[in-house]
Amino acid sequence: MYGETEIAIVGAGPVGLALALALSRSGIAVRVLEKRPGLSAASRASTFHPPTLDALHGLGVLAPLLPGGVRVDRILWRQVEDGASASLDLGILAGETGFPFRWHREQQDLTPALLAALPEGCVRFAAGVIALAQDAEGVTLRAADGSTLRARYAVGCDGASGALRGLAGIGVETSDYAHRVLRLLTPLDLRTVVPGLDGLGYLADAEGTCSLLRMPAVWRLIFRIPPAMSDEAAMAEDHARARIARFLPEARDLEIAGRDVYGVQRAMATACRAGRVLLAGDAAHLTNTRGGMNMNAGIHDAMTLAATLERVLDGGEDRLLDHWAEARLRVVREALLPRTDSRVAAAPGAEVARMAGLSPAQALDWAREASMLDIATAGTPA
Ligand SMILES: Cc1cc2nc3c(=O)[nH]c(=O)nc-3n(C[C@H](O)[C@H](O)[C@H](O)COP(=O)(O)OP(=O)(O)OC[C@H]3O[C@@H](n4cnc5c(N)ncnc54)[C@H](O)[C@@H]3O)c2cc1C
Q1: Is 20 touching ligand 1 by the criterion CB < 6 Å?
Q2: Which of 123, 132, 289 to mutate to test the pocket of ligand 1 (most atoms within 8 A of CB)?
Q3: Are residues 224 and 299 in the same domain?
Q4: What are the residues facing 10 on neighbouring strands?
Q5: Residue 350: which of 84, 90, 42 has the closest Cα?
Q6: Residue limits of the FAD-binding domain (predicted)?
Q7: Ligand 1 lined by 162 (C-beta under 6 Å)
Q8: Residue 365 three-state SS
Q9: Residue-level pLDDT at 344
Q10: Nearest Cα to Cα of residue 282 among 75, 99, 42, 56
Q11: Total structural domains in the chain?
Q12: pLDDT value, residue 371
């Protein structure tokens, strides 16, 4: 028996833990049930956008984390053949956010900080949820060991598996968009090789692109791989070296400290609410890693949902939750999925010219959208 609480959260990833902390800071009783025996240590998200930094600052977990991350003030686009380049200074966002920059740090460094800030015993590990019952007063969750947890609302933050989504009978729309990405890690400081590079660069030649992301200990090099190529062939030394030589000829012999291939999908839940069950994070939306937005969007789901639940538990109308669910789904459909869709990116070779040609007002709009400042608070009750 796990007992009773006001809000039950399924999944202790960044979204579930951020939601738990936001609710707990508002004095709302919350419990998290997590399937794994501990936090995931997988290397996934790297990028934290300004509104996410604002949110983490508000939760009181950012200050100790900031010194261990990489602050990125400028984004670079560079055409390999002729060296033509364009750059955008994120400082133009000063006045719209307390953090007018991107910040690069591993996702698995955030989750322990969130967990440590939660009250003792708030998260129950090795407690995968396998059953759900709803009635007029609340929900009852049952975990694999037979224990139950009763709550007024349950929030599925259980990632792409969408266990609670399925139990609540919410559908998911997927597309055949899936593709794969080769990720190489190098300790070489690529700022010594690429003129004008700060912490994020998009290199292009006539046939494709290579993204460069500076992380605290290494740089990530990201390449899209052709559908017919196997993971093994993509990671093979000769293929990896050929890719590096194409985009970074001066650094063709750089040390490769790690390599992997990951798949990219595109999916969204058909609703973010069914009765007393709500969805946030990957359980509600999956996107390409282009632009580094999906975890950020999940944390924005969490912040806006916490504000809405606080109002509802305080006597506000239940339909505030419908408004929240509709607003967040609209964000996914109209902003998150289109912005992360590499099929709508400018053709290789055109990106530098496009970015170099932006007027100051267009550059500001671009920076707002790329930083998610225009969508982060959608769904917050008025
Ligand atoms: C290589 C890579 C790079 C990425 N880069 C970025 C980036 O730069 N920026 C960005 O914003 N996003 C990025 N993403 C996406 C980001 O990693 C995800 O959006 C993020 O992890 C979503 O968090 P979440 O808490 O919703 O889900 P998850 O992190 O998947 O957490 C879900 C949790 O639920 C648990 N769970 C599952 N089923 C159950 C159950 N039945 N009962 C209880 N618990 C359950 C799981 O064990 C897990 O701990 C990247 C992803 C990948 C793969």
Answers
A1: no
A2: 289
A3: no
A4: 33, 156
A5: 84
A6: 4-335
A7: no
A8: helix
A9: 60
A10: 42
A11: 2
A12: 97
